[in-house]
UniProtKB/TrEMBL annotation:
Assembly: Component of the mitochondrial small ribosomal subunit.
Species of the source: Cladophialophora chaetospira
Gene: RSM25
Localization terms from the record: Mitochondrion
Protein family (similarity comment): Belongs to the mitochondrion-specific ribosomal protein mS23 family.
Annotated GO MF terms: structural constituent of ribosome
Disordered, as annotated region: 252-288
Identification of the protein by name: 37S ribosomal protein S25, mitochondrial
Predominant subcellular localization, coarse grouping: mitochondrion
Pfam family, one: MRP-S25
Keyword tags: Mitochondrion, Ribonucleoprotein, Ribosomal protein
Length: 288
């Protein structure tokens, strides 16, 4: 663990020695204070406090009345814990942490929604009343609303379980999300009816990117066919010119087009099947 650093305990002695050797012109003002109130000399490191997980629940008594009580669960020390971790601070645990993990693991795309995390005063939570639902003044609808609503249900609804509270808050969240999407869709339709023009939709942007990648792949496939054809022609001893290879490839691609009328040229797997047919013809020619 290293040697103990006692520099802070010897600061008064160091100041007196420097004044005696005339390294400093005068004694500091805190010399007498440090003599009267010396620093603590506890050299034993204390283990950090273990933070218990506290849960508030409501139960129904045999008399029919309800009462709130606390469930305190202390964290157990793992048997595989290493000695160097003994003096590290313990992790703070709250019940909301497990509720957040459950919700965002089921709804990962909620984390992709843009959120404004800048608060005006920081006291928005004081004006929230989660007994009324997920819609609160000054708080936009998000996964945190579901967590706080579920926590309120667990603390105030008698004999309710975590899955039951989660289902109630989750269904309320779905209803509000559908209402928001329906409102935005109607507003966009009304704006288009009045002459507004929006940019490309997400689907159109995605299709444009997909078409661009498909064109790049088609160009690569044609280049690959050209290189393979040139390699076969060079192996035969009669290197073909670029125009000959391209014309032969175009002729092979035009055959299905002539059979099918105005169909598009062969691309994709058809290109490779035509190349396989060309290789077979070359092999038969070599055998003859």
């Amino acid at each position: 663990m290293g040697r103990l650093n006692l520099t802070a305990f010897n600061v008064r002695r160091t100041a007196l020695a420097k004044f005696k050797s005339k390294q400093i012109p005068a004694l500091p003002n805190w010399v007498d204070i440090v003599q009267d109130v010396p620093p603590a000399q506890v050299l034993v490191r204390q283990q950090p406090v273990k933070h218990a997980l506290t849960k508030v629940r409501t139960r129904t008594l045999p008399s029919g009345e309800t009462e709130q009580y606390e469930q305190i669960s202390a964290s157990k020390r793992s048997k595989s814990a290493k000695a160097r971790h003994v003096f590290q601070p313990r992790q703070l645990r709250y019940e909301e942490d497990s509720l957040r993990r459950t919700f965002f693991s089921d709804h990962p795309w909620e984390l992709a929604r843009p959120r404004v995390i800048v608060e005006t005063s920081g006291d928005q939570h004081q004006n929230a009343d989660w007994s009324t639902g997920l819609v609160q003044p000054g708080i936009p609808l998000s996964g945190e609303c579901v967590v706080q609503r579920q926590l309120w249900l667990l603390q105030n609804t008698p004999d309710i379980t975590v899955p039951q509270a989660y289902d109630i808050a989750r269904k309320e969240f779905y209803t509000l999300r559908r209402r928001e999407e329906r409102r935005d869709r109607i507003a966009a339709e009304e704006a288009r009816h009045m002459g507004a023009k929006f940019g490309k939709s997400q689907i159109q942007i995605a299709m444009g990117i997909e078409n661009h990648m498909y064109n790049d792949w088609e160009k690569w496939s044609r280049q690959t066919v050209f290189e393979q054809t040139s390699r076969v022609a060079a192996f035969e001893g009669t290197p073909a010119k670029d125009d000959d290879v391209l014309s032969e490839t175009a002729l092979n691609e035009d055959l299905p087009q002539q059979r099918q009328g105005n169909a598009r040229p062969a691309i994709g797997s058809a290109v490779f099947s035509q190349q396989a047919q060309l290789d077979a013809r070359v092999q038969r020619r070599d055998v003859q």
